[in-house]
Specification:
Number of strands: 13
InterPro entries: Aminotransferase_I/II_large (IPR004839), Kynurenine-oxoglutarate_AT (IPR051326), PyrdxlP-dep_Trfase (IPR015424), PyrdxlP-dep_Trfase_major (IPR015421), PyrdxlP-dep_Trfase_small (IPR015422)
Keywords: Aminotransferase, Pyridoxal phosphate, Transferase
CATH class of the largest domain: Alpha Beta
Cofactor: pyridoxal 5'-phosphate
Strand content: 5-15%
Strand order of the largest sheet: 2-8-7-6-5-3-4
Shape: globular
Catalytic activity: L-aspartate + 2-oxoglutarate = oxaloacetate + L-glutamate
Number of helices: 15
Largest sheet: 7 strands, mixed
Pfam families: Aminotran_1_2
Length: 381
């Protein structure tokens, strides 16, 4: 068996979800909403199954969806893309990340990773033969620094894998941080794989700034988006890949021999959804921000130390004031004794983990969040 995959342990995400099922706990661990998603987008997918094309669509994606992606990014982010040569559709963002790594690195190439990080990154890098180099980010602000980047980049750096907005820290990186990262990419001739699946989940008037839009980065970025995150349909697995033509040609080869294509009915529905007017996207952000604020206020009323949440579905708390030093043990006790499942943020690190931060998903109905707060009562006293 392949040693990279065979040697992987059971993830804490699986452990916590299993404990939640076994104990009947309120599961605020896994990052998905309990809302079914926009009815009109789902209806379009259903109609396309019954009345549309259900055989192989084009390998790069339905032309109407590729054009919709280009139009969407032009309108919302000022990013001009050619739908024919710079946009591809994948079966989710994780496939897009896997394909990009397989396409862009040779065994022995170094890949810069920012921890805390999405749990798929490291095994995918290793399976592609890459050598990981880590930049460790620390709460409460999780900022990039010149010193940390200088320690991670080298002449062997080929790729940077960067998540913005960042799960699990819920930070939205400002231009200053992105400009710093861009300078290192240019200096070391590295390509940035930009996992931007949370690009629409930003709050308090913030605007997502794609790394690709910065000077010098247009030809050295792979931008990855997700319909599942934009429309709260996490099971749909429809990803968008944008890159300069010479890069996209190679990415397409990896996609061809991974999944080849993505269900055409979902592609049709997503093309419709991306063209929705601004009111949908503004309302979606407003609704999630309201849930964030409701849960934040509830946690603070219990005496818990809540870290800033600028984007994503997540809120983090600092458990140090509770006298806790082990986030994994804390989360296991929380689900067993309080009936609430959360995720220890140390699970998102490979080395030198932060052990005092715990992540909750707030993308839930009010009754779910209120029920969790009731069970957490007295925790911070």
């Amino acid at each position: 068996m392949n040693s990279v995959l065979a040697g992987l342990p059971t993830t804490v995400f699986e452990v916590m979800s299993r404990l939640a099922r076994e104990t009947g706990a309120i599961n605020l661990g896994q990052g998905f909403p309990d809302d079914p998603g926009p009815a009109d987008v789902r209806a379009m997918a259903a109609d396309a199954v019954v009345n549309g094309w259900n055989q192989y669509p084009p390998m790069l994606g339905l032309p109407e969806l590729r054009q919709a992606v280009a139009n969407h990014y032009q309108h919302h982010q000022g990013l001009a893309l050619d739908a024919e040569s710079e946009v591809m559709i994948t079966s989710g963002a994780t496939e897009a990340i896997a394909g990009a790594l397989l396409a862009l690195i040779e065994p022995g190439d170094e890949v810069v990773l920012f921890q805390p990080m999405y749990d798929a990154y490291l095994p995918l890098v290793r399976r592609a033969g890459g050598v990981p180099r880590f930049v460790t980010l620390k709460p409460p602000h999780w900022r990039l620094s010149e010193e940390a980047l200088a320690a991670a980049f080298s002449e062997r750096t080929k790729v940077v894998l960067f998540n913005n907005p960042l799960n699990p820290s819920a930070v939205v990186y400002a231009r200053e941080d992105l400009e710093l990262l861009a300078r290192f990419c240019e200096r070391f001739d590295a390509i940035a794989i930009c996992d931007e699946v949370w690009e629409h989940l930003v709050f308090d008037g913030r605007r997502h700034l794609p790394l690709m839009t910065l000077p010098g980065m247009r030809e050295r970025c792979v931008k990855i988006g997700s319909a599942g995150k934009i429309f709260s349909l996490t099971g749909w697995k429809v990803g968008f890949v944008s890159a300069a033509p010479e890069i996209l040609k190679v990415l397409a080869k990896a996609h061809q021999f991974l999944t080849f294509t993505t269900p055409p009915n979902l592609q049709s529905a997503v093309a419709y959804g991306l063209a929705k007017d601004d009111a949908y996207f503004e309302g979606m952000r407003r609704d999630f921000a309201r849930s964030r604020d409701r849960f934040t206020e509830g946690l603070r009323s219990l005496g818990l130390a809540v870290l800033p949440s600028e984007g994503t579905y997540f809120i983090n708390i600092d458990i140090t004031p509770l006298g806790e030093e082990d986030d994994v043990a804390f989360c296991k006790r929380l689900v067993a004794e309080r009936g609430v499942a959360a995720i220890p943020v140390s699970a998102f690190y490979h080395e030198n983990p932060v052990r005092n931060v715990v992540r909750f998903c707030f993308a839930k109905k009010d009754a779910t969040l209120d029920g969790a707060l009731e069970r957490l009562a007295g925790l911070g006293r």
